[in-house]
Amino acid sequence: MIVLTDKAAEKVKEIQTTESLEKQGLRLKVVGGGCSGFQYDLHFDDEIDDMDEEYESKGIKLYVDMISHQYLDGTQIDYVEGLHGAGFKFLNPKAKSTC
Fold it and tell me: How far is CA 92 from each of CA 28, 56, 97, rounded to the nearest angstrom?
């Protein structure tokens, strides 16, 4: 299961409304790159594939491909604001290192 915190769900809904993306879900993906070998990709998508897992968290549809699912299962996504900026933060219990 992949879940959004209340703050992350609020931010996603705000972006959906501002950008007129209410009918789209949030695509979550793990891609190669980054300092630990993987990085997270997150974008709005209106298409779901037969090979995707579909979740719903706090009223937001989440789409995850099968490969990414094995890395993201159990992840919580938060939205944080701080001195260094703001953004979505993946709290993944399977991650062995972060940077």
Answer: 13, 18, 10
Sign of CA dihedral 4, 53, 40, 22: negative
How far CA 37 is from CA of 5, 28, 32, 44, 99, in Å, comes to 26, 17, 6, 24, 10
Phi, psi at 73, each rounded to 5°: -55, 130
- How many residues are present in the chain? 99
Q: What is the pLDDT along the chain (99 residues), one digit of tens a residue?
A: 899 999 999 999 999 999 999 999 999 999 887 666 688 999 999 999 899 999 999 999 999 999 999 999 999 999 999 888 899 999 988 877 665
3-state secondary structure of 88: strand
